[in-house]
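---------- Forwarded message ----------

FYI, see the Pyrroline-5-carboxylate reductase record below. Original note from H. follows.
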Amino acid sequence: MGYTLCVLGCGTMGIAVLAGVIDSLDAASIRLDNALRNAGGAANGDSSTPKLKWESHTPGTLTPTSGDPSVPTQFVATVRREESAKKLRDLFEGLGDLGKTVEVVAGSNLEAVQRADVVLLGCKPYMAGAILQEEGVQDALKGKLLISVLAGVTISQLQSLVHPETRVVRAMPNTPCKIREGMTVVSTLPPGPETANDKAIILNIFPSIGRCRFLEEKHFDACTALAGSGPAFACLFLEAMADGGVMMGLPRAEAVELAAQTLQGAARMVLQGNSHPAQIKDSVTTPGGCTIAGLLALEDGKVRSTIARAIQAATERASELGQPAKK
Ligand SMILES: NC(=O)C1=CN([C@@H]2O[C@H](COP(=O)(O)OP(=O)(O)OC[C@H]3O[C@@H](n4cnc5c(N)ncnc54)[C@H](OP(=O)(O)O)[C@@H]3O)[C@@H](O)[C@H]2O)C=CC1
Ligand SMILES: O=C(O)[C@@H]1CCC=N1
């Protein structure tokens, strides 16, 4: 049987992860799994031995098998306001049969955590204390895996807010998880009796919605800036490229399409060919041609250091997000 995943504070990022996971799941298998659950148990498989399916940590489609306890098959999402809950219900209903099974609740964090096997914390960084210290939540989280996507809130800060037997892991996903093109960094798991189970659970979530990589927690602020904030930076560049096209007479819609597909194509060449970006740049740049003219204009605008400094600034800001607000 699969497990119940609760997204505690399900806003932009919670929706992106949940929508991606739901899209990745095989609906028929989930229906079977839930039918078996309702009938009182799995028909086959040893539920005590989770399978680790995503050794490569590259994107794929989850096909949960009944008896696999490391695949999420039941979903609960919590928010603060009923108005947000209604919007979320409409959104998940639009995702088809599986989306309709997501239970969205407002103001009932405790019950949601009690029912969950794994909790993904998706609230704003400053809300972590209030939510995790709601009455009963500490006990409800005892012995469970808590995956936090909060920028700037460290594992030791989170661990101090939960029961000592709660296993805390950090993940830094990004919004393209929603279309299963995400990049998620997960903090290296500490050794322990539950490590293999937890790893199987994590590898059944994040690689199904994009790429996934484990890194030490000390890198998390930089990962937050580069991958977490990255879609915003990429879209700013994309928009500027499209503006340039519009300036030269292209219709807006086509200019955006050309810019988006070009960035996607270049990025895929780097990822698939394992090529250095400079090699790709050089292969486009004909001596005396138009590309070098454009590149020099970019260099005159200090675009490289500006972009690199943006990552530096975002990293520095990320490191402040878990700290108490200055008066
Ligand atoms: N946005 C992004 O691209 C990324 C964000 N992150 C991290 O993800 C986290 C969430 O960011 P984001 O999704 O943008 O934020 P949102 O504001 O979109 O989502 C926050 C959610 O928390 C809910 N919430 C607030 N208070 C409570 C409560 N007491 N109990 C239950 N739910 C509550 C809100 O519900 P309501 O609407 O009812 O108030 C809302 O659904 C942050 O910590 C951020 O650092 C990480 C990577 C990328
Ligand atoms: O801007 C932020 O603080 C969050 C974290 C990464 C992306 N959005």
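H. also flagged this: The mean pLDDT is 90.
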